[in-house]
Design goal:
Helix content: 25-40%
Strand content: 15-25%
Order of helices and strands: EHEEEHEHEHEEHEEHEHEEEEEEEHHHEH
Distance between the termini: 72 Å
Number of helices: 11
Structural class: alpha/beta
Largest sheet: 7 strands, mixed
Length: 416
């Protein structure tokens, strides 16, 4: 069959590859315009464009598909069918009527449930046990066309938006081959959707990731998984955003307010929620890379200082900026330059222990939660602001060798 393919993200690449490898003649590919990414703002091609160029398929990237110029281009190709997968633009009626077999959409849900832009993520957030892929004839409405066939995919307890996308993409790549065969043979069955069973999967936005710990932990855990890889669930600690990439539901004691730290170990911590608690297993501080709690190579050690200034003022304004060693053989020149070695944190172990006890979570606030300051690597990364402005944590990333020397020089004490 002569096919025009329309798609943009990674989800759409699998189907394109499947159609080409099955021997169909993909005469053109339409995808979204290149977008600037990263700090360099360099234009990046869409995944579908990259794949189409590997097959030497002509690629078109109109800003507005409905413009007459684009309609004329599609008509000149005289396609038997137009296959659409997460293209990102609504096809006008002038294009829907061009192909012999119509326009077929690969939709990542079991229609009529989860019509809209983000069916994969919402299926996880809502706690669905299964989802799937549906092929459908495209109509004027949003995902309202008659269904052709579908495949079911189970949602695992550890599935994220990213992993489930991969599953559905692979399933859709196989399903579209079956659908094209039925279209060509005249055996495709049109099944109207029951609008009463529909629900809308709205577009994701960054504000959705702001965690409300008054919600049940189970609901928050699904949010954490569903919003990966974008926009990610996050909370604020010490006035800065911290992205949460991994969490699990654990029980908690009664009488603990939502948002209060309920459990702390060397490798993890838990936050009380409206129901149960959320144990954090993976997170990313603002401006940092993704960290797994308990990971030795990217661990944090913490120092603290007596406070004589304005409550809430960052401790580095007294003690110098944090230091990051890129490898295990770095010297202390960076710390010396920042003046850290010339500014001892506390004078003796007794003061350190007293300071650490003051830093333990109280009053339901997200405060500094680390016990094992000098107990080796694998400590958690979150940094919190102490109550009353008396003490505040300052994180430093150090390589293993430098960290050992630094702890010894400062005479840090292991908290019981």
């Amino acid at each position: 069959m002569r096919v025009i393919y329309m798609g943009t993200p990674d989800f759409a690449v699998h189907a394109l590859v499947s159609i080409v490898e099955a021997g169909h003649d993909v005469v053109a590919c339409f995808t979204q315009p290149d977008k600037a990414k990263g700090r360099s703002k360099k234009l990046q091609p869409t995944p579908v464009k990259v794949q189409a160029m590997e097959y030497d398929i002509p690629v078109y990237q109109p800003v507005k598909l409905r413009e007459q110029e684009n309609v004329d281009i599609i008509r000149e190709y005289a396609p038997d069918v137009i296959v659409v997968a997460a293209y990102g633009q609504i096809l006008p009626e002038s294009i829907l009527n061009i192909p012999k077999y119509g326009c077929v959409n690969i939709h990542a849900s079991l229609l009529p449930k989860y019509r809209g832009a983000a069916p994969i993520e919402w299926a996880i957030i809502d706690g669905e046990k299964e989802t799937g892929v549906t092929t459908m004839y495209m109509a004027k409405g949003l995902d309202t066309g008659d269904m052709i066939e579908h495949s079911i995919v189970s949602i695992g307890d550890d599935d994220t938006g990213e992993t489930l996308t991969d599953k559905l993409a692979a399933s859709g790549a196989q399903l579209i081959l079956s659908t094209l065969e039925k279209l060509e043979n005249g055996t495709a069955v049109r099944t109207p959707q029951d609008d009463s069973l529909s629900c809308y999967a709205s577009m994701l936005n960054k504000g959705m990731g702001d965690i409300d710990f008054s919600e049940p932990a189970e609901k928050i855990e699904r949010l954490v998984r569903g919003l990966q890889p974008w926009p990610c669930a996050y909370t604020r600690i010490g006035g800065k955003n911290v992205k949460i990439y991994g969490a699990k539901v654990v029980s908690r004691e009664d009488g603990i307010a939502p948002g209060e730290i309920t459990m702390v170990t060397k490798k993890t911590f838990a936050i009380a929620c409206g129901q149960d608690a959320l144990q954090i297993t993976r997170l990313q501080p603002r401006g940092g890379s993704d960290h797994i709690t308990g990971h030795r190579e990217k661990s944090y050690i913490f120092k603290y200082s007596t406070w004589n200034g304005t409550p809430g003022q960052p401790v580095h304004e007294q003690t110098g900026q944090g230091v990051h060693h890129e490898n295990g053989r770095g010297s202390h020149r960076a710390e010396d330059k920042a003046g850290l070695h010339n500014k001892p944190v506390l004078q003796n172990k007794g003061e350190q222990v007293q300071a650490a006890h003051k830093m333990r979570p109280q009053d339901g606030n997200l405060r500094a939660v680390l016990y094992g300051l000098c107990s080796g690597f694998g400590c958690l990364q979150p940094v919190g602001e102490a109550g009353g402005g008396s003490w505040i944590w300052k994180p430093q990333r150090l390589c293993q060798r430098s960290a050992q020397k630094y702890r010894k020089k400062q005479g840090w004490y292991k908290i019981p």
